[in-house]
Amino acid sequence: MANFAWSQRILKLLRQMNSFYLPGSCRTDCFRFEIDGAQVGWIPPHVAPLLTRYPEVFSPPQDGAVTLCPSLDSYERRSEGVDAILQTVRRECSLSSLEGWRDERYSVMPKFSDPPLMWMERAATCLFGVKRYGVHVNGYTVSDSGEVSMWLARRSATKQTYPGLLDNVAAGGLAADIGIKHTLLKECQEEACIPAAIAKKAHPVGTISYTYSNDEGVFAESQFLFDLELPLDFQPRVGDGEVQEFYLLPVDQVKELVATDDFKPNCALVVLDFLIRHSFIEPDSEPCYQELVAGLHQTLE
Amino acid sequence: MANFAWSQRILKLLRQMNSFYLPGSCRTDCFRFEIDGAQVGWIPPHVAPLLTRYPEVFSPPQDGAVTLCPSLDSYERRSEGVDAILQTVRRECSLSSLEGWRDERYSVMPKFSDPPLMWMERAATCLFGVKRYGVHVNGYTVSDSGEVSMWLARRSATKQTYPGLLDNVAAGGLAADIGIKHTLLKECQEEACIPAAIAKKAHPVGTISYTYSNDEGVFAESQFLFDLELPLDFQPRVGDGEVQEFYLLPVDQVKELVATDDFKPNCALVVLDFLIRHSFIEPDSEPCYQELVAGLHQTLE
């Protein structure tokens, strides 16, 4: 049955998660972040002046672009040159994103299939609008009578980001030089105590992509999605403390929850994609069906 | 294993199918086609002068838009007013697209979830860049040992469009006022003699969207996709003569074929989406994985 209010809440979520594309976003005021003539991100207007104080690393803005100095001509030199500046900025400026410094290195490249041009501290990527990649796992069960339920995680109340909100059973960012399936196995083990013997049965089912901006910066993300049917007698358990509790919920209840503020927004999109692929949303009864699918795959040209 | 040549051929196909978005396309020269202030299409530069000869229906271009005259203030008046002009244009101008007149009415609206503002002859939609919707079915089998094969159709050599090319087991455009599942059941029966008792087991799995332009016009399309696992002892049969033959091919062979010119391009995208959702393409071995997914979901803002 069509549920107009549900559709409208989901469309609103998709607009929020793609706010960078909307008229009036900071996009028109951003500087392109270029390395060797190739764009790898968008630098928000409040960030550019902090960077161009360091002309030994960042060339002054020209034609709407901030570039790295040509002397930084290798992966290592670029990475270390930028990291040194970011360490200074972190000490001297109050940028809330850098307060979440994680010592996690993310690869920076124009497209995922391109060789990385440098690495960058994860917490700094939003200051450069550098594309981030991650892995999200839909953990679910199918009862003997065919009823589908999903395992959801409740994030720890002390997490830096989105504390206390609902999350996928396991998820994590893709660090430099680490494989996608490897990341999946690691996050399944660490976050949900799902052993590799089970987690390796997860199979890839696509990606979602979105770009939003806020006071901190530009968040351009793509997530690699996996489905993992969990045995009926298996229960995820709290692992590294990022999660406070796991719930097994009937898929109809999950469908209601993704349209609420109780869900971490990008995890709600992951579940939305699951609901569409598994026919829990049908095009004849959901008038916005095609818009929902399109909203899960917005990409920057 | 990564197959660089395959990836490159698929990326080229995705670029072709989204050529309207590329720099240098006719997009910058197109007029917006607007009804009641809402954009419903793009009119190519060679078409606009043919339409504005009829000021009783089309207002002269203004601010880059061609609009319907305000006197056409209802669904019926707009539909009949435009249809009368198109019948004249069809007789008096040599437009190859109108030679394919089908007497099939497509709905015209800004978004699928909006109420239709008029209907338009299917063959004319590309002259207005009006968004078209259709249904495509992935017919496949799973052997007792778990091997997946796909049923593909070879289009009749006498088809108006894409004669002799490979196609999905069943597909069809969505006519005005006809439901999506209804269209699926009809096309399964007519094109492939798949009875409703089997076809109704098809389940929706998402959409693909793309926009290309060529000498004929602008083709903005979204397809509603369904997976249909066919019984091992069932064979599709040639129905209405749109197909000359059906083949059951191992999925590996299908994967090779989608990267060849032997496939009708949009049907190749349907199969690509199937291959991704069913993990026949894996992100760790396909560097362009995320680009492939994104290329299947390009939409006009």
From TrEMBL, chains A, B:
Domain of life: Eukaryota
Nudix hydrolase domain sequence ranges: 132-273
One Gene Ontology term of the molecular function aspect: 8-oxo-dGDP phosphatase activity
PROSITE patterns for the chain: NUDIX (PS51462)
Coiled-coil stretches noted in the UniProt entry, renumbered to this chain: none
Name of a matching Pfam family: DUF4743
InterPro entries: DUF4743 (IPR031804), NUDIX_hydrolase-like_dom_sf (IPR015797), NUDIX_hydrolase_dom (IPR000086)
Name of the protein described by the UniProt record: Nudix hydrolase domain-containing protein
